[in-house]
Amino acid sequence: MYDANKAAKWMVGIFGSLMLVYILMFAVIIALAANDSRRFTSLEVITGVLPFVLLIDFWVRFIAQQTPAQLVRPYLLLPIPKYHCIDGFILTSLFGWGNTTWFVLLVPFCLMSVVFTAGIGASLSLILFWYIIILANSQGYAIVRTLTMKHVLWWLLPAAVSVLIVSPLLVKDITFMFKVYAVIGEAIGNGSMLPHLVALLILGVTVAVNRRLQYNGVMEELGRQNVSAPKTIIKYSFLERLGELGEYLKLEMKMVTRNKNPRKAFITGVVAIVAISALISLTDIYDTSLMTNFWCIYNFVIFAAMLLVKVMCYEGNFIDVLMVHKENILRLLTAKYYFFCILLLLPFTLMLPMVFVGKWSVLMLLSYGIFTAGFQHFWLMQLAVYNKKSIPLNEKLIGKGGMENNYIQVLEEMGAFFLPLIVIQILEAVFNQQVAWLTMMGIGIVFVAGHKLWLRNIYHRMMKRRYKNMESFHT
């Protein structure tokens, strides 16, 4: 994990630094606008911006922040009360550095605008109120993330709250929204502590709810009893004629239908493909050459980006069984490749309306689909050699569902999205579209035809690292 953590820290440091620079730039812009405003005071301007900050802060947390329950499992073995573990992680999440990020926006704004118009006292009062609201937002995120892991319908909760926050904008306009939230800034400027008391009440309620929810979630998953027999058994008997390859195809199909985490990723992929296909079919906002290429490539590779990028991570839970017989892994990789090639029929079918209405060419769809089946799958399946962290099949609260690997995964996934786009843009700039599409199709056909060769190459490289990878899977 040392190399993985080191790479992650570098990437987080680089992107975090860029983000702070952008926030600082917006602080200067907002401060200059507040100084020039004759309608709103500086306190009213910054509280008018607060709802947008809260929404950005909430949704960005899904990228980086874990819930306490995901980290607490090893500590439950210690001879201390379980609630103390949850309390410790909640306090850590409250007073972590992440919750002070927005001070990069607030402090420069106060120095440039509030101090000179309302004084130091009002500035400190504003900073305190802002910090309490951000802490409450962090607890709200933890509550929502925990609930959405249990059932997809809980996503309606953050959607409803987000709509409620911006409801003044939906009712009238942004000026009216500023007037509504400017009341908070006006109260702070008058020395009232009512906004702080309301913010503290919201924080106390969210902490109490989050504390109970995290504890119940952890104990529910730790104490869950496995069902001895499923209610309905689907045998997929039509695959039996394929022998061992058919058995591994059954494994792939059952994994995405019976196990919670792969099934959720699969359903998310289906929803994304349907939504994107509907968007590009029913609107003309993405009809430019660049966006046409991007969405077509993205739609084809979305299943691979959500599931194939984790190749061997789910299998890490039963890696010992796969190592019993020679070339079991090779048959597994072959079945996995065929399975994801078959899945390409879904985005191909859903994007056919673009051909029927005359927006796209069937040659483009075929070329990008074959390119994905060949090169894109070849590219992402290289991760079978380097993925060595087991991802839980069903546990969501006490186990991370992410990749948990090093920078190689990040580079592979970024390459799967952007490398084909760069290639097709260069080809279209040098040749016409038909030549570019035929070239992409030719590249895909080469990799499809040679899939047995590169799959065996992946298998041999995996076998050279098998003891190192198995040790990591077990850990």
Feature tags:
75% helix; 475 residues; mainly alpha
What does it look like?
With 475 residues, the chain is mostly helical. Helix content is 75%, strand content 0%. It contains 23 helices and no strands. Helix 1 runs parallel beside helix 5. The longest helix has 35 residues. The protein starts with a helix and ends with a helix. About 1% of the residues have low confidence.
Task: Quickly describe the structure.
With 475 residues, this protein is mostly helical.
Shape: globular
Summarize the amount of helix as a percent range.
Answer: over 70%
Question: Quick check: average pLDDT?
Answer: 82
| Overall radius of gyration | 26 Å
How far the N terminus sits from the C terminus, by CA atoms, comes to 11 Å
The major beta sheet can be summarized as: none
Poorly predicted residue ranges: 401-405
The assigned structural class equals mainly alpha
**Percentage of β-strand residues:** under 5%
Order of helices and strands: HHHHHHHHHHHHHHHHHHHHHHH
The tally of beta strands, per DSSP, is: 0
Number of helices: 23
